[in-house]
Amino acid sequence: MTKPKIKVVSVNISKKKGTIKKPVGEIELTELGVKNDAHAGNWHRQVSLLGKESVDKFEKEAKRSIEFGEFAENITTEGLILYETSPLDKLIIGNIELEITQIGKKCHGASCAIFQEVGNCVMPKEGIFARVMKNGIVKSGDTIEYIQKVYKVHVITLSDRAFKGEYDDRSGPRIIELVEDFFEKNNNPVEIEHTIIPDDPDALRVLLERAEEGKIDVVFTTGGTGVGPRDYTPEVVKELLDKEIPGVMEAIRLKYGVEKPNALLSRGVAGLMGETFVYTLPGSLKAVNEYMEEIFKTLKHLIYMLHGLDAH
Q1: How far is CA 190 from CA 179, 185, 202, in A?
Q2: Exposed, middle or buried: residue 194 (CB in 10 Å: 0-12, 13-18, 19+)?
Q3: From CA 243, how far away is CA 256, in angstroms rounded?
Q4: 109 by DSSP, 3-state: which?
Q5: Are residues 140 and 155 in the same domain?
Q6: What's the domain range around 218?
Q7: C-alpha dihedral, 250 to 255 to 258 to 262, nearest 10°
Q8: Which end of the chain is more exposed for a tag (fewer CB within 10 A), N or C?
Q9: What is the pLDDT of residues 227-270, one digit of tens each?
Q10: 3-class DSSP state of 149
Q11: Domain boundary pick from 81, 113, 147
Q12: Do 199 and 116 share a structural domain?
């Protein structure tokens, strides 16, 4: 099946924030955004985009024609439902590369010149914003390639018995199941690798270093967080972390340790290794379910923070 054609139908500029933009022949995108546009700057909302699909929908509701740029979008597109994209997805226009940074924005209502003139604004719900990763010129008629961000996750099970085939690994497959569900709900494709290794610190270190080099987004380990003679996962991970995120694991231990004191004995850690987040989970299936539920509450926010996106 051929991909639907996505194209630029208008490029627009305004020199004052909060006002309607006017179509121009072409725009120049620099490392600060659209040259000579009011919204250019060293921030994450350098370029605004709105789909013709949204403009057409609003025209029917307003019962009047809408000019391109009336909703203050720099680039009007056709062929892609923009608000169904996600931050960190890419838009390629010739040699230009845009990285999507935000879907929608806060509406300023009656204090906005656009709202006053048009009577409503579709940008807060259906417009998107991007930052310029590669510079160039954009004009009407240019084609757009849409590339979704594919998240990469590595699940590592540490167990002598599972590695030897004496025990069925249940915690690793459960993490995979939960990860797939999380990214599916967030409309993000994900690639997951699963490795079972014995309780060997050198083997774990090799996999973690490889994950950092390969810019894996998230590593989940399961097993080796207790106090037994072969439990050393936290020690290995801590050696490699650039930044520890202690609050995540502390909150999990306290939440479940109130009723079940044994939950306080897990020494799991969380942190950032290069551009890779690492979470060390206990080996029990029940603990995996509890830990993953709490981890997912902040994971997307952490990923956006790492990439300099304002997720507030």
Answers
A1: 8, 11, 27
A2: middle
A3: 25
A4: helix
A5: no
A6: 151-306
A7: -60
A8: N
A9: 888 999 999 999 999 999 999 999 999 998 888 888 888 899 99
A10: coil
A11: 147
A12: no
Instruction: Kindly report the pTM of this predicted structure.
Output: 0.90
The first and second tokens of residue 135, run together, are 């510079």
- Quote the tokens at residue 60: 């029917």
Considering Cα of 102, then 106, then 110, then 111, what sign does the dihedral take?
A: negative
Sign of the alpha-carbon dihedral angle for 108, 114, 119, 121: negative
| pLDDT confidence of residue 49 | 97
Token couple for 72? 């203050």
Identify whether residues 60 and 176 lie together within a single domain. no
Assigned domain for 312 exists: no
Residue 271 contacts residue 239 (beta carbons within 8 Å): no
Of 95, 119, 147, which residue sits at a domain end? Answer: 147
Q: Which two tokens stand for residue 198?
A: 């014995």
The answer, yes or no, to whether residue 66 has pLDDT greater than 60, is yes
